[in-house]
Amino acid sequence: MRNPLIGPILHILREHPEGVGEFEILKTLKQQLPELQDIAVDINLQLFRQHFLIMNALYQLQTSLWQEESLTLSISATHIRILSTKQVPSSSSNEVNNSVEAKLAAYYLDWNEYEKTDEQEVSRLLNSFYQGIYLTGDREAALETLQLNQKSPTKAEIKRQYRKLAHYAHPDHGGDTERFISLRQAYECLMF
């Protein structure tokens, strides 16, 4: 199915030969097409659908620009730009980039992904994303803050250690407010 945003997005890209970010594209499209703000009641689902429609249009456009004009459409969230073949940088990481790019394109070109993604799925995706960000580098720091020597303490052990340390760090017991807050943050990180 041809995405109706292809024309407006191509116009935006041609107006910004230096490139433009996805957020700027969305902002411009919302001004031109107010109905984009009514594609879902839930705000997170609406943002997902707006993003999906833009990315779908970009990947359709990427294919047609290459086939019809031998132009490359470079796509990232922060910088989207039409490039001539002379402007395309060569890189040793092209194979990796191409495989990631191919997976992203396949996802965004599949209208079933758009249709099957509901509020619950968006919520799950967001939680997974935030949890991944939160846990990656912070887990070790949280273990250290709570003075837990083992790599995988049980929830009960985390809770027990947090309560013990929080009792002494609590401002009502003459403790340090900043220490208490850092203990709480570590506890929250580990309990997810």
TrEMBL record:
Residues 141-192 form the J domain. This is DnaJ-like protein. It comes from Marinomonas pollencensis. The keyword Ligase does not apply. The keyword Chaperone applies. Keywords: Chaperone. InterPro entries: DnaJ-related_N, DnaJ_domain, J_dom_sf. It holds the Pfam family DnaJ.
